[in-house]
Amino acid sequence: MMARFKTLLCGVFISLLLVPAGQAQPFDQTPILMPMPTSLVQSAQTLALNKPLTLSLNGLSPQRSAFIKAYYQQQFADFGYQVSPVTTEAALPIVVTVGDLQAPAHRLPQLNQNEQYQLSISKTGIVISAPADFGALHALATLSQLLYFARDSLELALLQIEDSPRFPWRGLLLDSVRHFISVAAIKRQLRGMAAAKLNVFHWHLTDDQGWRFASKAYPKLHKLASDGQYYTQAEIKDVVQYASLLGIRVVPEFDVPGHASAIAVAYPELMTQVKPYQMEDGWGVFEPLLDPSKPQVYDFIDAMVAELATLFPDPYLHIGGDEVHPKHWQESKRVQAYMGKHQLATSADLQAHFNAKVQAILRRHNKKMMGWDEIFHPALDKDVMIQSWRGKASLSQIAAQGYPALLSAGFYIDQPQPTDFHYRNEPFDTGLQRAHPLEESERIQAWDFTMPRLKGSAVTGKLVLVSEQNTLRQAYIQLNDQPFKQAQLDSHLIPYDAGMSRLNATIDSWMGPTRAQLTLNSESGLSGRILIGNAVYPVTGSLDPHFTHADLTNMPFLSAMGAQAQRNILGGEATLWSELVTEQNLDVRSWPRLFAIAERLWSERTRTDAEHMYHRLLPVSDFADAISLHHKKQFRHGLSTVLAKHNSPDNLALLTRFAEQLEPASYYTRHHIKYQQGLYHQNAPLTQLVDFLPVESPALISLHLLLKQFEQGQIEALRAIHRALSVWQADYPQLEKILANTTHVQTLMPSMIVAREINTLSLSIVTRCLDNNPFKQAESEKLSSSLWHLQTQSNELVVASGLFAERLLALCRDPV
């Protein structure tokens, strides 16, 4: 059954990427590796893999050597290779040599460790050399991918790889508080991190919704504020040791002075308002704060740091420090008197004062402070590591003032966002340009607009257009109080004129890829929609008649990041907050896109081709499955759970192909809908189809790649698209019967109806395109309007094939 199911799931779309002989497939000479190495020189000759593989490790520390040898021997065997435990003449040698052959004691991974390596494949075998254990580990991760993709041909191209990372800090934050994650699941993520060459596991252990590690000094924390879900100290030591063997550092996060509701439940006397507290199970920012005026608060922190120091050998300890709601401080006479005594004018000054005292505690325990943007203050010493979630403006400011910094904005993988959005999230690049000087023949026009959200305040913005002779030259967009960004304009832009025009402009914002599709009318104003990834939001606005050339000159833009600031940016961390993540969908939210984020932090800055990235990401997803990451398993299990007692092979295949047309709504759309539904809390079930869908449908990625091939002149790619859409179309009658008669999936009926209508339109577009009969402008506008009408903002589940249909239409219409 499983083999049949896998064929049904993968066969159609794998075949779609194959073009006839004589039509060169893009990137066909590039090895499938992720992250891509710094330097790779490949020969046309090959090494036959027709002998048992034997792995010899020289110079690695004894503890790591035994672990790694067993680990990779098992992995190579899982790929189908014969593995010999000892070196013989009949075996193919894989020889790994670390520079120091004195077999040192176990080396703990550290910041700025030497991670470079060389990997050589010749006619006589495979040779790896590295100055330290950590480079050798990365080399074996590279070799593992090469061997996986050679398992059918049983030959490897002869090559030489010279490789080292661009950034020394390449991390993943896992939130074990909002939903608890077992040790087994964490170890699985660590194995995935090692395969992707990520080297820091940031473990979020305390927050409003729970305290997740056992404390000997303050035992009521885990006894009263964990619901029985916490890690023993032995379990923590085991995870740290396991990560270390894989070359991964572990940095704990202990949140102070805010996100402290769990502390308040266990020890209310430490809080600014001393009163009984209940456990929080909702999501959001809560008011309880530690009281900086109480000496016992610093005794508590000192005891916590002392305990954490025995469990986590890494020099860094993350204190959180974000989203401090100052209400309780402002209402406390004691705290206000303390502020007056220490000449602290604002709550921000009080937090900086508190952080300075915490920093002194950390230093006594040989720890360095790390925290989110909000802890940044000139009063702190320059060895404080700042992790930026607020964006590149904050990152640039912090780094320019001499503080080591990490980028997390743009790497929030708890948000469903396209992988290419993360991939182009360059830590050194503000991505912005100043407004170009106006020529005398150019004129400007500005529009103010509002984009309501489902939770919280609306997003406000300004659109500034620069035109010449009714042709739009530039567009700039500002959202809220962020700096302006120059927008990328659609190549199919309808000509700009003084009365009415249509605009399709895209920027990357903190919300994700943000595409404004607008109608501008001098009489009725601005209307249209903003797409944040795949989520649709309506937008309205009006002309700003007072905007002048001088205003354009003075628009706030981010300046280029200087060399000194770049030196202080040490890398980045992907973050997986767990409001909508449980152990049952952890992997499907993380993999394979973490490989693309890892490549951004490892590989050369110039490696920016998203098409090439996606061509590798699809097979790398299969590799990730082969090394026992569970993203595909969790997807299959989720579909089976949804079908319940109707989980037959045929029904599963139908639902699988339907799921290929769907994605979870991008940005925090799902969070906001759950808030409206009263389901934005720890006990809300996360068992619907949307909870197990990949962030991006692999089938739709394949279709977009085929569309790119068609755009480059390969008509066979369009025929392949037609075949794929026809498979979907043939499914709908039977799928409708299943949805109508199966209680658990009846809620999917509206999405199926929308998908069917979109697919019918898509097939009509492809047919006209194949007939070389492109749509005229009026026809195109009618179809476009129909597609818009079928896509709304109000669902957690998005029929993402609609956006593919829009792109298809753009390529199958007459140029204006």
What does this entry look like structurally?
- With 816 residues, the chain is of the alpha/beta class.
- It folds into 4 domains: 1-30 and 630-816, no CATH class; 39-163, Chitobiase/beta-hexosaminidase domain 2-like (Chitobiase, domain 2, 2-Layer Sandwich), CATH 3.30.379.10; 169-426 and 567-571, Alpha-Beta Barrel (TIM Barrel), CATH 3.20.20; 442-553, Quinohemoprotein amine dehydrogenase alpha subunit, domain 2 (Lipocalin, Beta Barrel).
- The chain is built from 26 helices and 28 strands.
- It has a 9-stranded antiparallel β-sheet, with no helix packed on it.
- Strand 18 and strand 19 form a beta hairpin.
- The protein is globular, with a radius of gyration of 28 Å.
Entry summary:
The protein has 816 residues and is α/β, with parallel strands linked by helices.
CATH topology name of the largest domain, in short, is TIM Barrel
CA radius of gyration: 28 Å
The chain-level mean pLDDT equals: 91
Helical content band: 25-40%
CATH evolutionary superfamily of the largest domain: Glycosidases
Return the CATH architecture of the largest domain.
Alpha-Beta Barrel
End-to-end gap: 51 Å
Estimate what percentage of residues fall within beta strands. Answer: 15-25%
Assign the structural class, choosing from mainly alpha, mainly beta, alpha/beta, alpha+beta, or little secondary structure. Answer: alpha/beta
**Strand order within the widest beta sheet:** 20-19-18-17-25-24-23-22-21
The number of distinct β-strands equals 28
